[in-house]
Amino acid sequence: MKPAAFDYVAPRTVPEAVDALENGGRKAQVLAGGQSLLLEMHLERVRPDLVVDINRIPELDTLRVVDGSLRVGALVRHRVFESAEAVPGPLGSLFSLAVVNIAHPPIRSRGTMVGSFGWGHPASEWCAIAMALDADIDLRGPQGVRTVAARDYFHGPLRTDRRPGELITSVRYPLLAEQTGVGFVEHRRTHFCFAQVAVAAVLTVDDGVIREARIGLVNCADRPLRAHAAERALTGVEIGAPADGYRLPEDHPFARAGRVAAERDAAPLAEPYADLEYRRHAIAVVTARALCQAADDHRSRAGGTKGDS
């Protein structure tokens, strides 16, 4: 299937891109990697009058640390994050765990992290990580520059706070302290499918006690979620000894937190290959496994000393 006819422009500066988007109105679309846009155009589910190709704007292809935050420009490709060394500290490890679940290597070489925020798909790994870490989304439009917190940005399936004429220029994540433990676990029906559920987990541990937990849920509702109830269930809890694989007793804190995430935080919908009972069970299991992974990561960063877990 071929896309419907459209006009095309390739601006060389951000102001030129914003002008083109403003003039193009609601049926203008931004092309960065094209991971989602080109498929939707070929299926004619999206029929833009104008495609604004931002790939010739060098200032958007930047990845840098500014004031304790990582600023990811709109043209930074997924593949950059396959190396944990691309980003300082545990944040780089979290990104490297998540990115391998996104499509396939040729697509990751073109698709962009920030493009995920343009679409706001509930199954986006990056968007759920942004929710867990309280990231900020930077936009530039006809009325100037504004920043929207991730918690206020996602409105529903493929609906975001981005206004007509606005361009997402970057997403900013806070860097994580060196001994922060991170985990990311994804479950899908086949390698070619979107995640049925994925979970990002971040643990801050002091003297063996969880001081703060951050949990982002992928495809567990009509938008990316942060599992606040599950996080509260873990605050002040002893992290305990390493799990035997990922087989946890029902009274283990991570198993309990997984059930809380599934029952109180998530709002899944039934799918053709997964009814509600199955989806809630999967959310509980994957959350517990991501927390185990984050706990193991913390132990590794703390030196694996007995009692420091």
Describe this entry's structure for a reader:
The chain contains 10 helices and 14 strands. The C terminus is likely disordered. The N and C termini lie far apart (55 Å). It is globular, with a radius of gyration of 20 Å. The chain is 32% helix and 24% strand. The chain folds into 3 domains: 47 residues, Uridine Diphospho-n-acetylenolpyruvylglucosamine Reductase, domain 2 (2-Layer Sandwich); 116 residues, Uridine Diphospho-n-acetylenolpyruvylglucosamine Reductase, domain 3 (2-Layer Sandwich); 121 residues, CO dehydrogenase flavoprotein, C-terminal domain (Enolase-like, domain 1, 2-Layer Sandwich), CATH 3.30.390.50. The protein has 309 residues and is of the alpha+beta class. 46% of the residues are buried.
